[in-house]
Amino acid sequence: QVQLVESGGGVVQPGGSLRLSCVGSGFTFSPYAMAWVRQGPGMGLEWVSGINSGGWRTNYAGFAKGRFTVSRDNAKNTLYLEMNNLQPTDTAVYYCAKYSGSYVEEGKVDFDDRGQGTQVTVSS
After folding, report:
1. Residue 97 class from Cβ within 10 Å (0-12 exposed, 13-18 middle, 19+ buried)?
2. pLDDT tens digits, one per residue of 27-37
């Protein structure tokens, strides 16, 4: 059974930083593309960033470019999202998502599984 457990969320002031982690279990982590998606208050699901199975190919939504960095450690079955210069508009529940293939196209939310999410709140 696929399990994805996110952590690292919290409350941060505008301009601050957070590092999210997602540990996968119940499946072989390395062959699959992964991504971060988010859902803000009253909003739909929004794709944030994706990374291919090997970790060398990444892509980002426009709002994330230059501020967020996605990475993975396949030896630790862990996906990361480093977020800098956070703004109130980044307030959302952040989820990690597993795809069926080794590559994820920008903006695609047709993932197989996602975790329970971690709350990120940006407020002064």
Report:
1. buried
2. 999 999 999 99
